[in-house]
Specification:
Length: 455
């Protein structure tokens, strides 16, 4: 194995690399973890340590690391045609083929893909597209978009505005106008002792209340993740999505599923919309679309929306230099083909997901764990000081940080969102690797518990 001078790399990194989503003073104190290689579900750092990547990178490496076929198609495409754009009535082969395959694997109302480079810019596209759609429909005042508290829709001005994270709004002056936020379906933190299904209905009805308050003729769309990811893996009660669907239909509000995490097998079906029977009008895709091997995103446009634009539209003055980038599209195409041909989603669903649920469910007995939630290969442990009262240790996510840091020492990558410990392994994880993951989580919980309770 190649050897690296970690201290030197960290010093250069600290000096010249301005990091995203990072507490800079803390980073300068501790130094960065430098990742140098990966294979399957494992990543390696510059000191030669091997970690089980329980987060699939940033929720994206669905087919796992080390698939050389993707490198081969990237090389071949760069040699054939490294770049050409999709503006002004141009096209190139990989974008055409990927759009066709996406129409095949997405729900039947979707036959058109708009390409971008990320989930964030996809959600910028969503805002512009839904407002444009209503304008072409003769209802230009329908320009308000409703999202949810604690949602994550990316980090551009539009993405972060749609997102419901106050800490993000505070950096840079957001949200932009005409964005509303309603309740998230987080049952564990409900204080009214409702059953899960009662709570799911109530959370969904906060959408209806807001529609009526703002005026139905002002609402362009509602956007939501089928399962909230970065907000802490909030698995909604089964009653939630049918009620949301009813409300959107009743007021003719476009329904947008942000499938950036849930898409491409994460919930055990191709899309979260399949898992929850969501009939949406637009879908945002990224992350698993290329399994992170290339930066690419897409907005799937339903026939309902596309037909209005095809008939009534003028020039759609929106797009990116790299919309439909041939190398990114070629890699995403190969990734989706591998997923389909190797039945990666079916294998995960039929052979490992139920096992993952049953194994992480055993952690519910741990004195730190107030709740275990999971769906597909998304999981969360809610850390509490007191299981009876659901009280936390503090309001700064101290328990989550203690557990996350212990996991790192135990060579497991897990993330803490406040006091939710979250999991999102590659879809190719096998049962033995699940065992390793759960064993390391158990150990990390023990260590965090001892540190937090001072014994
Ligand atoms: C990650 C994420 C985004 C943003 O995607 P980027 O590629 O980071 O811009 C948007 N929506 C959801 C649900 C996400 O998880």
């Amino acid at each position: 194995m190649e050897s690296y001078n970690t201290a030197e790399l960290q010093a250069t990194d600290a000096k010249h690399h301005f990091h995203p989503f990072t507490n800079h003073p803390e980073m300068h104190r501790k130094g960065t973890r430098i990742i140098t290689g990966a294979e399957g579900v494992y990543i390696y750092d510059s000191d030669g340590n091997k970690y089980l990547d329980g987060m699939a990178g940033l929720w994206c490496v669905n087919i796992g690391y080390g698939r050389t076929e993707l490198a081969e198609v990237a090389k071949a495409q760069m040699e054939q045609l490294p770049y050409y754009n999709s503006f002004f009535q141009s096209a190139q082969l990989p974008a055409i083929e990927l759009a066709e395959l996406l129409a095949e694997v997405t729900p039947p109302q979707f036959n058109r893909a708009f390409f971008g480079c990320s989930g964030s810019d996809g959600n910028d596209t969503v805002i512009r597209l839904v407002r444009y759609y209503w304008e072409l429909n003769g209802q230009p005042d329908r320009n308000v978009i409703i999202s949810r508290e604690n949602a994550y829709h990316g980090s551009t001005m539009a993405g972060a505005s749609l997102g419901g994270m106050q800490g993000m709004h505070a950096v840079g002056g957001m949200p932009i106008p005409n964005i509303e936020h309603v309740d998230q379906p987080f049952h564990y933190r409900d204080e009214n002792n409702l059953s899960a299904d009662e709570f799911g209905i109530k959370a969904a009805q906060s959408l209806e209340e807001r529609i009526l308050k703002v005026g139905a003729d002002r609402i362009a769309a509602f956007i939501a993740e089928p399962i909230q990811g970065a907000g802490g893996v909030i698995v909604p009660p089964e009653s939630y999505w049918p009620e949301i669907q009813r409300i959107c239909k009743k007021y003719d509000v476009l329904l947008v599923a942000d499938e950036v995490i849930c898409g491409f097998g994460r919930t055990g079906e191709w899309f979260g919309s399949n898992t929850y029977n969501i009939e949406c009008d637009l879908m945002t895709l990224a992350k698993g679309l290329s399994s992170g091997y290339q930066p690419i995103g897409a907005v799937m446009v339903s026939d309902r929306v596309a037909s209005v634009i095809d008939q009534e539209g003028r020039e759609f003055t929106h797009g990116y230099t790299y919309s439909g980038h041939p190398v990114a599209c070629a890699v995403a195409l190969k990734n989706v083909q591998i997923m389909r041909d190797e039945k990666i989603i079916e294998n995960a669903r039929d052979n490992v997901m139920a096992y993952f649920h049953s194994q992480i469910a055993t952690l519910a007995d741990h004195p730190l764990v107030g709740e275990v939630r999971s769906k597909g290969f998304l999981g969360a442990l809610e850390l509490v000081k007191d299981k009876g009262t659901r009280a936390k240790f503090d309001d700064k996510g101290g328990a989550g940080i203690a557990c996350r840091d212990a996991a790192g020492e135990n060579r497991l990558i897990m993330r803490a969102v406040g006091d939710s410990m979250i999991m999102c392994p590659p879809l190719i994880i096998n049962r033995a690797e699940v065992d390793e993951m759960v064993e390391k989580i158990g150990l990390s919980l023990d260590q965090a518990n001892a540190a937090l309770r001072g014994h």
